[in-house]
Amino acid sequence: MSRLALPDVTLACVDTRAPRVALAALEHCVAQVAFARVMLFTDATSLRTLPTPIEGVPVSIRSVDEYSAFMLRGLATYITTPFVMVVQWDGYVLDADAWDPAFLEYDYIGAPFVSDPKGRLVGNGGFSLRSARLLSAMQDASIIISNPEDACICHENRETLEQQFGIRFATPELASRFSYERVDPTGPTFGFHGLFNFHRVMTSEQLREFLRTVPDELVCGVDGRDLCRILIADAELDLAAMIVAKRQRVLGAFDNRTVRLRAALHTAQLRRRFNQLP
Q1: H or E stretch covering 87
Q2: Closest by alpha carbon to 187, among 198, 202, 176, 172?
Q3: pLDDT digits (tens, 9 = 90+) for 76-106
Q4: Which end of the chain is more exposed for a tag (fewer CB within 10 A), N or C?
Q5: Among 8, 10, 16, which Cα is nearest to 29's?
Q6: Largest Cα–Cα distance of the chain, in whole Å?
Q7: How far apart are CA 21 and CA 122, in angstroms?
Q8: Are residues 118 and 14 in the same domain?
Q9: Residue 150's CATH number
Q10: What's the burial of 21, exposed, middle or buried (CB within 10 Å: 0-12/13-18/19+)?
């Protein structure tokens, strides 16, 4: 099967926390799309063996604030194509057939936020398409850098970017065909973002293997909690139990969110056993 050709787009992922998982996301993307370049920005020790066509670029990023600063001001140095598609470890291309050339008519496109100021719904940065024009505009001294980086672009500096630099943000309607995150998709999308969506894009066995091998820390946040809740509601109790166990190893037995997950899981397990009684 031929891949979608995007010769004007560089695929980029910045990850020093879980580069192996980030690499898997890049591989999902390149399985369906031929990009101009594919770049993984991570710590030097993780760059020893990378499969073709992925290029490794050593960076030192130790916090979320440093990640945002790099995405807003540092990434531009490395991008030589008219566009860059940014992915994180928990998002990748789903359906290359959902690509629309109209995506390239805008300087920024990402999944619509679930609720934000009117006219500023677009969009999430974890799976997003950005123009070189936008990267250049972000270097200007009038731009105020803040974290998270997608809100910095789409909320904090939106008026400045639109009025002073002519930056164009995609409409929510078009963005919802590009990717989804917290807003449920209504049809095929080019990609997605969010650990809490993994039950949509993986089979139970694929998700089991992912949870078996992923670093425990990656499921300890709100997104991991939300995925666990969904799995409990869907009666995928073995998978939910894997998340609870990982969270307990990192956060301890008395973390409030994990305690509530464990209680919900226990209730669901008891209900299942009761329903199986003769």
Answers
A1: strand 83-87
A2: 176
A3: 999 999 999 999 999 999 999 999 999 999 9
A4: C
A5: 10
A6: 72
A7: 26
A8: yes
A9: 3.90.550.10
A10: middle
